[in-house]
Amino acid sequence: MGLVTLRQCLQEAERADYGVGAFNVNNMEQVQGIMMAARQARSPVILQASRGALKYTNFVYLKHLLQAALEENPDIPVVIHLDHGDSLETVKTAISLGFSSVMIDGSHLEFEDNVALTRSVVEYAHDHGVSVEAELGTLGGIEEDVQGTVKLTDPAQAEIFVERTGCDALAVAIGTSHGAYKFKAEPKLALDLIPEIYRRVRIPLVMHGSSSVPVELVEEVNRFGGSLAGSKGVPVESIQRAIQLGVRKINVDTDIRLAVTATIRRFFAEQPAKFDPREYLGPAREAIARVVRSRMEAFGSAGHAGDYQPITLAEMRERYRSGQP
Ligand SMILES: O=C(CO)COP(=O)(O)O
Ligand SMILES: O=C[C@H](O)COP(=O)(O)O
Ligand SMILES: [Zn+2]
Ligand SMILES: [Zn+2]
């Protein structure tokens, strides 16, 4: 298998009716833990890097970590994706590093500016065979506008947006937000928007801010000196319902952060005399694999690694050029 584009990965997910987890990476142990899970679950996987990750790893280390993931797992379909790209320049950098998919996040812009930015990225990325995820509507958390309100995705506007931009997948705002504090009371998502948006746009939908913030991880972090009072995530059952309605890419970063933090806090509390990083980074890697494997099974992607052969970027470029991607 190896490198696949987001377009092919999500088309196959539509065909076999499952969702694919998109997991953020910043270091070796995260990449290894996620790929351990993909091998164990025999699941396609999306490895995604934000601008923060590109900066943290000085680009070149990330490039080779992602190449290592492909080299070590030739029988697993892997999408290498830029998360929350902010400009055509960042997109070009990601594509130069070998990414097979990019997100351009113009959700905070006025509609016409989002269309223009997304269109410019689609033209460039498709000319390299690379898929494009765009976003319409704003999440809570890091994307709240100055009034602190979020704009849910409007189905009619989404139809026009996708028609005018030609993006391959659309991130929608249905009430999720990034981080560990997604809801002040009981989780409430506008799941009813999904089928209406999907019916109109007819491309796979993306759910950001989809970590579940498992209570057992929060309790372990807090037991060993952490402070995560009031944290609340998206119930896995809500994600499974969203997948049934048209969401095919599910973004998870916070749950991986919590798995690492809980493991390392426990280690330092229980083994204060130890100081070899391999003795806590290794177990952290296994904790990542446990969380990610559980999501692959919940999203339904487990067992689908062998379903299809990858279409190369060169072939995708020709398909885009001929209008039949
Ligand atoms: O949306 C995300 C990455 O783009 C991650 O969301 P979480 O913070 O819920 O993990
Ligand atoms: O968009 C949110 C992702 O979790 C990435 O987070 P980051 O920008 O801190 O790397
Ligand atoms: Zn956004
Ligand atoms: Zn996100």
TrEMBL record:
CDD domains: TBP_aldolase_IIB (cd00947). Its EC number is 4.1.2.13. Coiled coil: none annotated. GO terms for molecular function: fructose-bisphosphate aldolase activity; oxidoreductase activity. It comes from the Bacteria. The keyword Metal-binding applies. Its cofactor is Zn(2+). It is an enzyme of class 4 (lyase). The keyword Kinase does not apply. SUPFAM superfamilies: Aldolase. Keywords: Lyase, Metal-binding, Oxidoreductase, Zinc. Pfam families: F_bP_aldolase. This is Class II fructose-1,6-bisphosphate aldolase.
